[in-house]
From TrEMBL:
GO molecular function: ATP binding; homoserine kinase activity
Source species of the chain: Streptococcus cuniculipharyngis
UniProt pathway annotation: Amino-acid biosynthesis; L-threonine biosynthesis; L-threonine from L-aspartate: step 4/5
Name the record gives this protein: Homoserine kinase
Pfam families: GHMP_kinases_C (PF08544), GHMP_kinases_N (PF00288)
Subcellular compartments: Cytoplasm
Record-linked Gene3D superfamilies: 3.30.230.10, GHMP kinase, C-terminal domain (3.30.70.890)
Lineage, broadest ranks: Bacteria, Bacillati, Bacillota, Bacilli, Lactobacillales
Length: 288
């Protein structure tokens, strides 16, 4: 059995902790068979445990504590700690692993609730489960979500060659906002989401770049951001935003302009790599 989970790009500007998009990089789990102990073979670095301490196994055992230990191969082209949902993809894979091995018959809604409880917010785990664009809330233990197609656009991700931990990137955010600030910030978020659902990327892009919840506090942590945004504007981009907690910089650009923008970005020779991504329309999948 094989489980595959897409990468995700959260927030999309003002959809902080509640909006995310599934994109075309993948975590793949191969279940190779029962073993005396949990074994997770991977080449993701020495910091990632290869035994029962691996997040994948921890999540699977949390969901179904009596699973038999397995030998598992884990491969991923989702960059770690770069704002592309690498840990959320592992959480979703762990839930699916428990679902399959334990024959739990979980619905997608069950998976979303479990994943959100583990992750703390639904913006990465929801698109990792459903694919596409997902708008979700998590309030008083209840997850509410809506899956929608993403408007036609090209996606470019600049992935810096340094990591930024979500916890560090959350630390620069204010502890509180006034009521008036919250009303203004959520009105911008409302327009961003409405425009995405209406397929109006010009309007969505303006609202995404007007975010009041996190972008202005975090952009200084990503030194390449301003330069990329300026270049992207010159290439007609709809929006440039921090993917999740960063440091990946995501650009939404009209289809047909992405190759020229990628070339121009590559010519800046920034310390990192630029990828052209597409929207993943499926989310987590299982192969026999
Ligand atoms: N919404 C989260 C954040 C995504 O921006 O901190 C990363 O977990």
């Amino acid at each position: 059995m094989k489980i595959s989970v897409p990468a995700t790009s959260a927030n999309l500007g003002p959809g902080f902790d509640s909006v995310g998009l599934a994109v075309s990089k993948y975590l793949t789990i191969d279940v190779l068979g029962v073993a005396p102990d949990w074994q997770v073979e991977h080449d993701l670095g020495a910091d990632i445990p290869s035994n029962e301490d691996n997040l994948l196994v921890q999540v699977a055992l949390k969901v179904c504590p009596n699973l038999l230990p397995q030998r598992i191969k884990m491969t991923s082209d989702i960059p770690l700690a770069r704002g592309l949902g690498s840990s959320s993809s592992v959480i979703v894979a762990g839930i699916e692993l428990a679902n399959q091995l334990g024959q739990l018959g979980l619905s997608d809604e069950d998976k979303l609730t479990l994943a959100t409880e583990i992750e703390g917010h639904p913006d990465n785990v929801a698109p990792a489960i459903f694919g596409n664009l997902v708008v979700a809330s998590y309030h008083q233990g209840q997850v509410n979500h809506l899956v929608a197609d993403f408007p036609t656009a090209a996606l470019l991700a600049f992935v810096p060659n340094y990591q930024l931990k979500t916890s560090d990137s959350r630390q620069v955010l204010p502890q509180s906002m006034s009521h008036a600030q919250a009303v203004a910030a959520s009105s911008i978020a409302n327009v961003a989401v409405a425009a995405l659902l209406a397929g109006d990327l010009e309007k969505a892009g303006q609202a995404m770049e007007a975010d009041q919840f996190h972008e202005s506090y975090r952009q200084p942590l990503v030194k390449e951001f301003a330069q990329i945004k300026e270049l992207a504007k010159r290439h007609g981009a709809y929006a440039t935003y921090l993917s999740g907690a960063g440091p990946t910089v995501m650009v939404l650009v009209p289809q047909g302009r992405e190759q020229a923008l990628k070339l121009a970005l590559d010519q800046l020779a920034l310390a990192g790599e630029t990828f052209l991504l597409t929207v993943d329309g499926e989310g987590v999948r299982v192969y026999d």
